[in-house]
């Protein structure tokens, strides 16, 4: 995985180019986090990208119906397995079998057109 130098002494790990995430859409990438390699959901709005572990709090399944393909409706992300509905903005489940639980957020930054994981989430 590439390392991107930032201003100061901290470093962030690049996960993909911003252009690889469709604007207004989502994709999945594999990334090395403190707990090991994980699939991440990346959700993009313009130059802002939100990240969550691709693990549904209901039964621990991936949320995509095919690798990197997610059910999105308005501002929601819908788990493809049993239909739990999550806010894209904060990962809170607002309907379905795990209502009130949340996706696990992964802090991201966009640096020079590259989506990077915040160093706090790294090993
Ligand atoms: S695994 Fe996501 S709703 Fe059941």
UniProtKB/TrEMBL annotation:
Signal peptide: none annotated. GO terms for molecular function: 2 iron, 2 sulfur cluster binding; metal ion binding. It holds the Pfam family Rieske. It comes from the Bacteria. SUPFAM superfamilies: ISP domain (SSF50022). Residues 13-117 form the Rieske domain. Keywords: 2Fe-2S, Iron, Iron-sulfur, Metal-binding. The keyword Hydrolase does not apply. The keyword Signal does not apply. InterPro entries: Rieske_2Fe-2S, Rieske_2Fe-2S_sf. Gene3D superfamilies: Rieske [2Fe-2S] iron-sulphur domain. This is Ferredoxin. It comes from Rhodanobacter lindaniclasticus.
